Amino acid sequence: MADDVMERDVSVLEKERVAPVETLRRSDEALRLPAVAPPTALPLEPPLVPQVGEQTRAVGLRAQRPDSRNHGLGLTRYIDDIALPGMLFAKIKRAGVASARIVRIDTSKAEAMPGVKAVLVGSEIPVNSFGPSLQDQPLLAAPIVRHAGDGVAAVAAVTEQIAEAAIDAIEVEYEPLPGVYDAIEALKPDSHKVHGGDTNVYASKIIKRGDVEKGFAQAYRIYEGRYYTPGIEHAPMEPFTSIADWDANGRLTVYASIGRITLARCDMSRTLGIPISRIRVIGTVVGGNFGGKNEIRHEPVLALLAKKAGRPVKGRFTRVEEFVASTIRHAFTMDYKTGVTKDGRLIARQVRMVLDGGAYCSFSETTLGKACILSTGPYEIPNSLAEGYVVYTNKTTAGSMRGFGAPQVCFAYESQMDEIARDLGIDPIEIRVRNMFREGSISSTGQVLHSVKVKESLENAVKKFGWEARS
Amino acid sequence: MNVTITVNGEVRSASVPPETTLLVLLREHFLLTGAKTGCDVGDCGACTVIVDGKAVNACLMLAGQADGRTVTTIEGLATREGLHPLQKVFEETGALQCGFCGPGVIMSSKALLDEIPNPTTAEIRNALAGNLCRCTGYQKMIEGVHEAAEMLQSTTTPATLATKTPATPALAALPQR
């Protein structure tokens, strides 16, 4: 009987099959999300951005940001617009003194305040240092305070007001230390050493091309000048804000408006002493960065407060903290010595610059490197020598900011070009055209340049701002 | 203390501590996060909302002071028929980059256009003096306000257009440009 059944033709039920996951995962235009998700509540006209798969012409169209629709509607969710259930607010007590040793911290009054859920001091942090190149910056100073914006203790409380009151209730006793507040002073052998050791110089760079001494010997005239640019705060509209949240398995999620997520995970892994695989960083829409949100600030502190309190913790810098406890643009002091021929050709340039790095390294090495590379300007100079140094001072830390040192040196070499032009009686545009990079020029680093458009750019600019019509 | 305000046409109340600012009331109690906390001391204007027709810094006004008043926030500008002309031109002119100052700038501009329908550049600059922006350089915003003023004065604003023709479903074909 059974044999009969087995010999019969078997019919298979006709059924539509669902594509397996592998098929769905393939890049499929129809499955991709549009560049801007349609607003859910408002049946508005479609966004004016090109949609996936659509052929558009770009030249002559107004450039539009895919996210500006939501910005204008107030629907963009920035970090401060996110709140987690049970979330606490953190505040960090700033030292307020530029150079001191912490003798005693008494957090007992703050801990006793109703609503305060956690208090943290520097000595409780597993690895109390971070930084993108040198790990010289503590999250909370312990025991040495190196600038007024250094944090000394942190509090997480149920409201921002209670946290604010609690940090005021923390008593800190300082033993004042000598300080150094000027980059040139910091170079002197007898100056206060911000990080101990024999010198405040923590990075240097030298770029040499040809022989400057020979160049100066051949020069018709030599011009010397000192140029100075101050520190600048990025002042993004959105202050530094982050939220730290642990799950029951000991994994950390940090929501932050940070530009470099992997660097942040590395720094947090190091400071917290947990593997990077246990740290998840969710980068939110950034409300202005300009280079100031490239590294962690208070995230590990928030994480430790959240761990102590067992609740998510949000920290938001005040506008004052934004100025004193974040990074700023490096202040530069630049000495330029330039030898020129009678017809205004630059034949030798020597640059010595000192960067005020503030209390910690941050992105100083990157800034120094770029400043030195670009310090001779977009001009072909056969003999050049650029020397740069970054020094520690007891001031706000200098870090990355748009251009990484390029705007500072540009101010110096272009100022000097004007001085040279005026002295030699050559038109300022003409002297630049005579010296600027051309196809095949060799830069101060020995790089052979191609696709050089400096001359065209300048000529275009001259036409547009009406140089000929000047009075 | 109890506070009752008419916000974007809706009467809403909350029981808040007396030190609560209008900004905290809107953001944390009513979850209207369009107004931003930029400086919390009245310098940057990212928190600008309209209270009884006047643009104010919500961070400087106590929730109690707003009791019984009418508040318009950025969330109350667009209607089911379409974007407010300011929102439309700000999007088109690229006046919003990181967008953090945007809601405040748009609310300040709206308060200006409600009072002066056809403002001069000087009047626009004056109205936006309390709104800081670090991305755009303000030029596109000023152009945008001029453009929005024209749109509001012409008979075919997007809102009136939309009432004549049914609203296009989202993600339909792009408008011909």
Describe the model:
The complex is a heterodimer of chains A (471) and B (177). Chain A is of the alpha+beta class. Chain A has 3 domains: 88-176, Alpha-Beta Complex (Aldehyde Oxidoreductase, domain 3), CATH 3.90.1170.50; 183-233 and 327-469, Aldehyde oxidase/xanthine dehydrogenase, molybdopterin binding domain (Aldehyde Oxidoreductase, domain 4); 235-324, Aldehyde Oxidoreductase, domain 4, CATH 3.30.365.10. Chain A is built from 14 helices and 15 strands. Chain A has helices at residues 2-7, 21-25, 68-73, 108-112, 160-169, 183-187, 212-218, 261-272, 299-309, 319-324, 364-374, 406-424, 428-435, 454-464; strands at 88-94, 100-106, 116-121, 144-145, 151-157, 171-176, 201-209, 221-229, 241-246, 252-256, 279-283, 313-316, 331-340, 346-356, 383-391. In chain A, the strands form 3 sheets. In chain A, strands 3-5-1-12-9-10-11 form a 7-stranded mixed β-sheet, with helices on both faces. A 5-stranded mixed β-sheet of chain A has the order 7-15-14-13-8, with helices on both faces. In chain A, helix 11 (364-374) runs parallel beside helix 12 (406-424). The mean pLDDT of chain A is 91. Chain B is of the alpha+beta class and 177 residues long. Chain B has 2 domains: 2-76, Beta-grasp domain (Ubiquitin-like (UB roll), Roll); 85-162, DNA polymerase, domain 1, CATH 1.10.150. Chain B is 34% helix and 13% strand. Chain B has a 5-stranded mixed β-sheet with strand order 2-1-5-3-4, sandwiched between helices. The longest helix of chain B has 15 residues, at 139-153. Chain B is globular. Mean pLDDT of chain B is 88; it is low at 160-177. Chains A and B meet through helix 3 of A and helix 2 and helix 3 of B.
